Task: inverse folding
């Protein structure tokens, strides 16, 4: 059986606290460390706990990245926004790209669906409305090329030059 830090007399151990967080949902190592630090767990104890949880495969940055990417892609967020969010959780580039690949999202279809839902009944031949639609997609994390193509596909063959 793997060793884990003992419970102190005042409450749950750092291991129990971390395991309690992981039972609810996946956490990145960085996020788990931040939450344990906020609970007053000493750095040495925290390092031991995080290593133990990784070794036991209860905590995995790879699994966390895939779950977050899948969830965000399902909520119609674009790859740029997902990359930024994963990076803020301390996930490395290789894991970020692997997670985006694993979620197998059709980014263009997602962008087109967003435009259709948000602007479906509106006339996208209006330049101001096209700009709003493109800006909306950019904020959601789609790149400029995808945003232009999504607006164009929902706007009766609008020339992308009109979007600039």
Result:
């Amino acid at each position: 059986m793997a060793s884990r830090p003992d419970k102190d007399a005042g409450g749950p151990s750092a291991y129990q606290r971390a395991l309690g967080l992981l039972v609810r949902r996946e956490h990145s190592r960085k996020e788990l460390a931040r939450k344990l630090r906020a609970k007053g767990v000493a750095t040495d104890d925290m390092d031991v706990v995080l290593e133990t949880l990784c070794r036991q495969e209860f905590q995995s940055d790879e699994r966390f990245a895939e779950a977050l990417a899948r969830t965000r892609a399902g909520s119609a967020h674009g790859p740029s926004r997902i990359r930024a969010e994963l990076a803020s959780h301390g996930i490395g580039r290789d894991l970020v790209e692997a997670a985006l690949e694993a979620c197998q999202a059709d980014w263009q279809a997602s962008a087109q669906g967003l435009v259709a839902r948000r602007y479906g009944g509106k006339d996208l031949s209006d330049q101001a409305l096209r700009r709003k639609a493109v800006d909306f997609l950019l904020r959601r994390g789609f790149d400029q090329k995808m945003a232009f193509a999504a607006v164009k596909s929902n706007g009766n063959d609008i020339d992308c030059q009109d979007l600039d």
Observations:
- The chain is about 65% helix and 0% strand.
